[in-house]
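Most newcomers find our protein records easier to grasp once they have seen one. A record pairs a protein's sequence with a compact description of its fold. An example says more than a description, so a record of this kind follows:
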Amino acid sequence: MLIPRQKTPNLTLPLLGGGSFDLSREAGSLGTVLTFYRGLHCPLCATYLKELERLTPEFAKRGVGTVAISSDGEDRAGAMAEKIGAQSLRFAHSLPLAEARDWGLYISTSRGKTSIGIEEPALFSEPGLFLVNKDMSLYYMSVQTMPFVRPHFSELLGAVDFAIDKSYPARGEYTGAV
């Protein structure tokens, strides 16, 4: 289980266009938003990632990097990036499902073709949104069992502003007896 204020697992994955995403080497002065999405087969993911693409420059102004991550291979990840018109948002692909589990993501099985006619992979991870500090400690997370009702990136951006202004610490860090 990931705990706020504690170190997250490292994550190193290939990026579309070459190179790799390595969480331990992220250049953002504050941290990174990691958005785990279900894959090309998910129409809700495309809508969600369009919002992140639009707001990626605003996160960057605050010293926060962004990356979209899925277990899709390079071709499907590329098709998703093209579908949303990605210019600023980085896409990491080929997430091993064992690593998805390390991040607390739920894994689903295929139900065949989706409403947009794209075949689901045999296994894939459900959505997760993480804000990881520069030192790789967890600041915020939201993990879902379904593709519906996700946190809004505009609200996360507002939370980043609040946290910066008020030096607000990550919450949920207590692990002692209750």
The radius of gyration is 16 Å. Residues 32-166 form a domain with the Glutaredoxin fold (CATH 3.40.30.10). The mean pLDDT is 97. DSSP finds four helices and nine strands in the chain.
